[in-house]
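Practice problem: predict the structure.
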Amino acid sequence: MTKKIWLGVYFVVTFALVGCGGEPATQTSMASPSSAAPPIGGGESDETASTAGTGEARSIGVFSEGPGSIAGESLLNTLVVYFDFDRSEILPESRDLLAAHGEYLLANQSARLRLEGHADERGTREYNIGLGERRAQAVRRVLLLQGASLDQMGTVSYGEERPAVFGSDEDSYEQNRRVELAYRQ
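Answer:
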């Protein structure tokens, strides 16, 4: 029980400190783990553009410019959160993205979201399933802190089984270490 309390305090303090300063993030740092590789993201749904394997970011068509927009494109159109190798901690460049999605879920209680955790091909299948789950749960915890409710979200881990990019180089690995935010009706 005390571990949960300390974890909650940790997240509150972390987000309070993050909001206290620093330069605003740019779209390239939010949308892609490296400048050479654009993101692949989002789950399949009626609202999601099907661009798997094309190098294009997926987006939900219902989002438009407004608060949280960067360079004319809403943060809500970014549906992928990337992670460092063998880690499940949320990167600083993903915080604004998750804050925007959390606010959206808070304002739209009927919205439903599936958080799909993924890993690159390194490690055993079992380990990567667990890592994908830890990543999805990390994103879920942040969205809950932003105001989303438990019944709006579910998690699933695909581990290494559904790569965004096929390849055994660092650029491919970077794009496969992710959580996809898949909105559904």
